[in-house]
Design brief:
Elements (H helix, E strand, L loop, with lengths): L8 H7 L12 E9 L4 E9 L4 H18 L4 E12 L2 E11 L8 E3 H11 L5
Antiparallel strand pairs: 1-2, 2-4, 3-4, 3-5
């Protein structure tokens, strides 16, 4: 004799991941902490929720660096390193940049004016 088990649709629904709501997809920027390590060396600690990837929190740090660069009267930033962490739904990063009035050497350079405009257009806060 073959037996079939009936599984309630409610039981199956309980196993499915929740459907994301619109507010789950809107980044929530939790703040920027800036530390000047030297005259032209700066560290930014940023945190956010609802990031879709590590790239979102890196962009947040880049935006902070671009705004800081312009505020100090410089035109360019050079990315040195970024450490990204995720804990309990909160993404955070600590990133270090150099700032300079002229185009620096290095692989990841940021034109601060262009980056600030892009951050404003994307709605990424810089302060």
């Amino acid at each position: 004799m073959t037996r079939f088990a009936f599984i309630s649709p409610l039981a199956l629904a309980a196993c499915a991941p929740p459907v994301p709501m619109a507010e789950d997809l809107i980044p929530d920027y939790l703040g920027i902490e800036t530390t000047a390590l030297d005259v032209d060396l700066v560290q930014f600690n940023v945190a956010m929720t609802n990031a879709l990837s590590e790239g979102d929190v890196r962009n947040y740090a880049d935006c902070a660096a671009a705004a800081y660069t312009l505020d100090r009267g410089y035109a360019f930033a050079r990315h040195l390193r970024t450490n990204v962490y995720k804990e309990g739904g909160v993404w955070s990063a600590d990133a270090v940049y150099t700032i300079s009035p002229t185009l620096p050497d290095g692989l990841r350079k940021i034109d601060a004016e262009v980056a600030v405009a892009a951050c404003q257009e994307s709605g990424i806060p810089m302060v």
